């Protein structure tokens, strides 16, 4: 599933062709993705000018001068395509702009979603209501994390994946940040010293920033809007590297935790 860096990369790729431009044509080519498209999507977006693009957790936001916000989630296999040569059977939403650009939301597995709400209703949007702070924002710091983890005995990896604690973190980048900090993914969150939590916050920021710079990681069907693949996978320290050597020379291990694969070094991470 595309994680925060992939969504951030997507938003940045869409911005040059959408921001400041009027939507001249909006077309849904099927009734639904994971859930139905808004019934008034075409009416409310056609003729509107895109004023701003942003991201919240793993959701992309497209705001218009009509005080509407289109919220998209890429699900398992979704991606935006800019000026595709042909519209394919998996291109389920088409946007055209006054500059002549065509954008297609392609989602072969249809696990993504598109919502359209009023801008002033954004804070109360159900998927956002319980989200924790953004990991790249100022509210996410060692003090905040220590308070959220106080007395918690669940593994630190599971706690970091809890979107109520911090929004947008996914399996790949949590594994990478924990390795960078030398923390065993199974360590109870409430037993990690504040100094190590400060380092963990720094590592999360470093890993996410590097992944965004590299265009994200390529998993299955993900690609950037320009069609290029993300290359952060070439920099993975432990994720997806079971049986290979860690930088210390120890073999990287994998185990299943809550249905997800956890990759770690038994020597570096304690």
SSE map:
Layout: H1 4-18, E1 23-28, H2 41-45, E2 50-56, E3 59-64, E4 68-73, E5 79-82, E6 91-97, E7 102-106, E8 113-118, H3 126-129, H4 142-149, H5 156-160, H6 171-181, H7 194-213, E9 253-257, E10 260-264
Antiparallel strand pairs: 1-6, 2-3, 3-4, 4-8, 5-7, 6-7, 9-10
Helix pairs in contact: 1-7, 4-7, 6-7
Task: Give a description of the structure.
The protein is an alpha+beta fold and 270 residues long. It folds into 2 domains: 4-130, N-terminal domain of MutM-like DNA repair proteins; 142-264, Orthogonal Bundle (Helicase, Ruva Protein, domain 3). The chain has 7 helices and 10 strands. It has helices at residues 4-18, 41-45, 126-129, 142-149, 156-160, 171-181, 194-213, and strands at residues 23-28, 50-56, 59-64, 68-73, 79-82, 91-97, 102-106, 113-118, 253-257, 260-264. It has a 4-stranded antiparallel sheet with strand order 1-6-7-5. The chain has a 4-stranded antiparallel sheet with strand order 2-3-4-8. It is elongated, with a radius of gyration of 20 Å. The chain starts with a helix and ends in a 6-residue tail after the last strand. Mean pLDDT is 92; it is low at 218-222. Residues 237-270 form the FPG-type domain. DNA binds at residues 90, 109, 152. Monomer. The active site is at residues 2-3, 58, 260.
